[in-house]
Structures are given as C-alpha cells and as structure tokens.
Design goal:
By secondary structure, the protein is of the alpha+beta class. The chain has 1 helix and 3 strands; from the N terminus they run βββα. The protein has a 3-stranded antiparallel beta sheet with strand order 1-2-3, with no helix packed on it. Strand 1 (2-5) and strand 2 (11-19) form a beta hairpin.
Length: 54
C-alpha cells in the first residue's frame, strides 16, 4: 500500500500485489494499473522490459 501526498488538499493511495508464480506480475491492483505501476518503478526501461500491458 502506498500513500502519496499529492498536495495540500489531497492524498492518493494505491495497492498492488505481485505474484512470484507468474514472474512477479500484478495479480491484484487498486488505484493503479499495471502499466502505471511499471512506469513508476522502472521509468527508464523500454516498453518490452516494463511488463505486461493492461
């Protein structure tokens, strides 16, 4: 679970669960898509390296 201060008037939160059985792919997500998550954690990787598309 991530809580992020998005400014004075709001806080954002999201949750993502990764599964080792499927090469650490997202199995549950709330408040973020898989592609958004991969862009956040690996912004310098190519699209092919960044994980599955939604």
């Amino acid at each position: 679970m991530v809580y992020s201060d998005a400014g004075m008037e709001r806080t954002e939160s999201w949750y993502i669960e990764l599964t080792a059985q499927k090469n650490w792919e997202p199995s549950v997500a709330n408040g973020i898509t898989a592609s958004e998550f991969f862009k956040f954690v690996a912004p310098n990787k190519t699209e092919a390296e960044s994980g599955p598309r939604d």
